[in-house]
Amino acid sequence: MATAHIAAEPGDFAPAVLMPGDPRRAQRIAEAVLTDARLVTDVRGMLGFTGTYEGKPLSVMGSGMGQPSFTIYATELFSQFGVERIIRVGTAGGISPEVKVGDVVIATGAHTDSAMNQLRVPGVNFSAVADFRLALAAYEAGVDAGLGERLHAGTILSRDHFYFTPEGQTQALAGYGTLCVEMEAAALYGVAAEFGRQALAVLTISDHLLDHSEDMSAAERETRFQDSLALAVAAALS
Ligand SMILES: O=P(O)(O)O[C@H]1O[C@H](CO)[C@@H](O)[C@H]1O
Ligand SMILES: O=c1cc[nH]c(=O)[nH]1
């Protein structure tokens, strides 16, 4: 049955869904990796496709930007469409000096300034963490692909603001080994915990907060995701 934000029927989604923020990236991913892809929802232009990859069912759908948007789609996918695992395929801004533009980050945990997970368990600072098996599968795929020093795994920041950064925050986070910043993973990990399902974010570094000399253009942000996509597919079908 269709939900408020997804015009699909039970069985239209595969157990594993790849979710980029950008619905046009969802279409590019569907065209790049899926066989016999069909559009299963387009409410609000948030395109979702289902097909197969090497004979296994796989879906891809945009999430929109920010934790509220991601939470709406992830909640409906987990609760109404039988989805078992969601792998976010996103872009992120580098924080650690170890991380360079074009590198791939497996987000094993996500700090956040959002209130969304604070409200989940009264009196508790919720730990937003990835599914260990998905993270391991993605990491092993990255090693096998020869990514070498371009492959990272560790904590990230999921922030509500894109343009506002409190003074000293980036340096402090770098001091705690935080790899990069994006806007959705903490919410994904919270919703997955709520429904007892699996989640992971695999991120492409599109820019660096401490050095903007190598930042990607808007077009590159839409298209330069092949390395992280390969790891996300490996995790999705592991
Ligand atoms: O490239 P996506 O997946 O949209 O991710 C990043 O890009 C958007 C901001 O430009 C935010 O959604 C952020 O998390
Ligand atoms: O949220 C994001 C995503 C990409 N780059 C950033 O600087 N921030």
TrEMBL record:
UniProt keyword annotation of Lyase present: no
Stored SUPFAM superfamilies: Purine and uridine phosphorylases
GO annotation terms (biological process): purine nucleoside catabolic process
Enzyme class: transferase
Enzyme Commission no: 2.4.2.3
Nucleoside phosphorylase domain boundaries: 16-232
Family: Belongs to the PNP/UDP phosphorylase family.
Name of the featured protein: Uridine phosphorylase
Species assigned in the record: Actinomyces respiraculi
Gene: deoD
